[in-house]
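Thread: assembly with ligand

MN 10:42: here's the input set. Chains plus the small molecule as SMILES. Want everything predicted jointly, not piecewise.
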Amino acid sequence: MDVLLFAGFLGSGKTTLILSLARRAAASGSRICVIVNEIGEVGIDGEALRMGDLEVRELTAGCICCQIGPDLVRTLRNLEERYQPGLVIIEASGVATPGGVLEALHHYPVKSVTGIQTVTVVDSTRFVALREVLTPLIEAQIRGADLIVVTKVDEATGAEVEAAKKAVELLAPGIPVFAVDATDDATLAVLAAGLIPEEVRA
Ligand SMILES: Nc1nc2c(ncn2[C@@H]2O[C@H](COP(=O)(O)OP(=O)(O)OP(=O)(O)O)[C@@H](O)[C@H]2O)c(=O)[nH]1
Ligand SMILES: [Mg+2]
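BT 11:07: finished. C-alpha cells for the full assembly:
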C-alpha cells in the first residue's frame, strides 16, 4: 500500500484537501483509509472524514512524529490486515514535522508500505505571520515535503500568495508547488492524478 502523509500547521486546510482528493478516488471501489492525528481536540476531523465515506482511524494520545510512532505503525498494520487498502492517507497533527513521522516509520517498518510521499499544506493567508513566530516548525514542515500545496488562494491577496510561493520555493528548491482554493476542481484533479495511485483512482 502507498502512504500519503499530509503535514501543515493547524487550520492550514489538510482535512479539506484530503476530502477533495479522496472524493476523486474512492469511487473505484478500492478502499482508502485515513489515519488522523489530533491532539487534545474532540474528533472533529474524524467525523468530517467519515462523512467522505472513508475508513478512518483517529490517534489522539499524542503526536505521531515524536510521541506515538508505535501507535501509528500498529494502526497501519491493522488497516493492512483488515482492508488491504491501495492507499492510506495520514493527516499529521498541525505541530508534527514530516521528518519525525518518517523516522518513526523507519524505526518500526511496516512491510506492506511500498511508498511514502509527503504533502505539506501551507496557508497562504497566514504563512508570513506563522513563519515569523514558529520558524523552526513551519520551515521543517516545508523542508520535509515531496510536494507543497499552498491553500486559500481565494481568500488571500495576490501578494500573500506570491510571498508564500516564493518563500516555499527557497526553502524547498525543486519541489513542486500547487496553489489551490478548496473549490478549484482543475488543480485538484491534477493533484489527484499525481498523488493517488492509478488503481485507486476513480
Ligand atoms: N477560503 C478557503 N478556505 C479554506 C480552504 N481550505 C480550507 N479552508 C477552510 O479553512 C479551515 C481549516 O481547514 P481544515 O481543512 O480543517 O484545516 P486542517 O489543516 O485540517 O486543520 P487542523 O486539522 O485543525 O490542523 C476550514 O474552515 C476550511 O473550510 C481554501 O482553499 N479556501
Ligand atoms: Mg484537519
